[in-house]
């Protein structure tokens, strides 16, 4: 029963675990069912004690419970999200996590005053060379003597990583953007090592270290991404994804290890996400193939948006792959024959019928030499041409991204965009509580129309300005005495019209209860209103008889 309740609690509320000593048997399962786990360094999470296992195996295999479920096992496999040195630090970490989360399901996220200016530039700039993605998120010490710190994207000191040693090719955690708590998913660009320990119960097993390339989703990192998305959705946090994947690792071992299943879990998590999801392709990053498929905004069009930096790239195939398929050697030779005057001249001479065999052989040799000389040049031009199809301009033209951004000012843009989306979501929930039949497109059109009505047609162009719309929405939602809220007034009429429509349809579908309904309703209205009803009915009777 307690296991079922714990599983249900994870779906309904925010659950957290602090393992201070030992979690054994059902206790270990309860820890996992609660998902967000903090483990004290000398504690362990086990199913069976070391002594009992040794008796089952018939020999002394395990020396301690720590060997079975200590932090070197549970933190490295993602069961434990964070480790601490003592109970006090564990409780402090729990409180830090709670500070990012809403008070209850219907509450807005807790926005705190940030000492880090929202309009400051993002100083650390991602490079083509591999770098630590945490520098992009949280900043790093300056590499020059003049400065002491290079600021990252989020507020200084607000980024808290979880599940760090597990699936290190993906970085996940929580952070604040201008005081707004958000979930974060970023990509490791460097190669990482996956360490698989030897099994003491199997004398033939040995420890393995496997190299994993950066910018690639492996089975473990895909599972980590899906797990983080699922947890952050339950917490009610908006999500920012810094997309920089070249695809999934599709080798035989990875396919056997269920990379396809865990990639599908990412799609499931994003489809179910109930808060804004902002996908951003940062500078020098690229989004390709299957990795684009699983984070495409069409998965959840109500909540997802995708943006790209002006120096990023995106497409199904990399330029080299596109050229290999669409512009092969024979196509390059055709292009040479069409545009290179030397090649054209040699080909024309070679087509002369009265050529002697020695001359023909000499021309064929020259033609071949010219072809080999031009081939790498033409190939490079073809790759460059294919790359032009992957630029942010083309992505925006094809409608697969919302806008093109600059890294230096992206922090300010995303702050106002996130504020606007959160406020719009609050209003949309109010509207759909009044009339659940309205679609998201209809609600969005209503909001725009109300904005133009309130601000005037002259200011209609400001609807595309996030900062202006945030100011308007905050004024409308503020509870001021005597203030007339356009939004509240319109929601009142939407609710009234929806209720009248429901009553009308019920009476039309069940005409036999119409008389009883009128009698029942007249018992719940004032004498003045009853008199008015009688007058209306009399008027209708007079009109019908005439």
Automatic annotation (TrEMBL):
<dbReference type="InterPro" id="IPR034733">
    <property type="entry name" value="AcCoA_carboxyl_beta"/>
</dbReference>
<protein>
    <submittedName>
        <fullName>Acetyl-CoA carboxylase</fullName>
    </submittedName>
</protein>
<dbReference type="InterPro" id="IPR011763">
    <property type="entry name" value="COA_CT_C"/>
</dbReference>
<feature type="domain" description="CoA carboxyltransferase N-terminal">
    <location>
        <begin position="1"/>
        <end position="113"/>
    </location>
</feature>
<dbReference type="GO" id="GO:0005739">
    <property type="term" value="C:mitochondrion"/>
</dbReference>
<dbReference type="GO" id="GO:0006633">
    <property type="term" value="P:fatty acid biosynthetic process"/>
</dbReference>
<dbReference type="InterPro" id="IPR029045">
    <property type="entry name" value="ClpP/crotonase-like_dom_sf"/>
</dbReference>
<feature type="domain" description="CoA carboxyltransferase C-terminal">
    <location>
        <begin position="117"/>
        <end position="433"/>
    </location>
</feature>
<dbReference type="Pfam" id="PF01039">
    <property type="entry name" value="Carboxyl_trans"/>
</dbReference>
<dbReference type="GO" id="GO:0003989">
    <property type="term" value="F:acetyl-CoA carboxylase activity"/>
</dbReference>
<dbReference type="InterPro" id="IPR011762">
    <property type="entry name" value="COA_CT_N"/>
</dbReference>
<dbReference type="InterPro" id="IPR049076">
    <property type="entry name" value="ACCA"/>
</dbReference>
């Amino acid at each position: 029963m307690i296991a079922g309740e714990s599983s249900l609690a994870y779906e309904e509320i925010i659950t957290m675990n602090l393992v201070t000593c030992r979690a054994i048997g059902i206790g270990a399962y309860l820890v996992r069912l609660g998902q967000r786990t903090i483990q004290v360094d000398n504690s362990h999470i086990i199913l069976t004690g070391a002594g009992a296992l040794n008796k089952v195996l018939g020999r002394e295999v395990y020396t301690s419970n720590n060997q079975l479920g200590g932090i070197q096992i549970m933190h490295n496999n993602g069961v434990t999200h964070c480790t601490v040195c003592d109970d006090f630090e564990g409780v402090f970490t729990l409180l830090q996590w709670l500070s990012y989360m809403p008070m209850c399901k219907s509450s807005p996220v807790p926005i705190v005053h940030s000492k880090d200016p929202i309009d400051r530039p993002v100083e650390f700039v991602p490079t083509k060379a591999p770098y630590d993605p945490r520098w992009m998120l949280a900043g790093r010490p300056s590499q020059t003597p003049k400065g002491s710190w290079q600021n990252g994207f989020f507020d200084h000191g607000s980024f808290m990583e979880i599940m760090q040693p597990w699936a290190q090719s993906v970085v996940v955690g929580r952070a604040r953007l201008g005081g707004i708590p958000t979930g974060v998913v970023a990509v490791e660009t460097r190669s990482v090592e996956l360490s698989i320990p030897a099994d003491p119960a199997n004398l033939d097993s040995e420890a393995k270290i496997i190299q994993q390339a950066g910018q690639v989703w492996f089975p473990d990192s895909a599972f980590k991404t899906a797990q983080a998305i699922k947890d952050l959705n339950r917490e009610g946090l908006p999500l920012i994804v810094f997309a920089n994947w070249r695809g999934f690792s599709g080798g035989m071992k990875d396919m056997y290890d269920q990379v396809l299943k865990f990639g599908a879990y990412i799609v499931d998590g994003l489809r179910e996400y109930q808060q804004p999801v902002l996908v951003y392709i940062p500078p020098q990053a690229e989004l390709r193939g299957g990795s684009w498929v699983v984070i495409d905004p069409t998965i959840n069009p109500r909540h997802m948006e995708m943006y790209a930096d002006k120096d990023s790239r995106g497409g199904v195939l990399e330029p080299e792959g596109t050229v290999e398929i669409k512009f092969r050697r024979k196509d390059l030779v055709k292009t040479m024959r069409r545009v290179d005057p030397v090649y054209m001249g040699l080909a024309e001479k070679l087509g002369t019928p009265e050529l002697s065999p020695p001359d023909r052989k000499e021309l064929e040799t020259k033609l071949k030499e010219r072809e080999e000389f031009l081939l790498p040049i033409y190939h490079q031009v073809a790759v460059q041409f294919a790359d032009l199809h992957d630029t942010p301009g083309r992505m925006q033209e094809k409608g697969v991204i919302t806008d093109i951004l600059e890294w230096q000012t992206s922090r300010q843009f995303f702050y106002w965009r996130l504020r606007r989306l959160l406020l719009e979501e609050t209003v949309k929930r109010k509207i759909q509580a009044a009339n659940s039949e309205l679609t998201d497109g209809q609600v969005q059109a209503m909001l725009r129309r109300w904005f133009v009505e309130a601000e005037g047609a002259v200011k209609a162009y400001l609807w595309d300005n996030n900062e202006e719309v945030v100011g308007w929405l905050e004024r409308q939602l503020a509870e001021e005495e005597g203030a007339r809220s356009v939004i509240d007034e319109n929601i009142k009429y939407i609710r009234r019209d929806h209720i009248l429509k429901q009553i009308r349809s019920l009476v039309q579908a069940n005409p036999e209860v119409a008389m009883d309904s009128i009698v029942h309703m007249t018992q719940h209205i004032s004498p003045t209103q009853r008199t008015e009803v009688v007058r209306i009915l009399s008027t209708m009777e007079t009109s019908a008889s005439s």
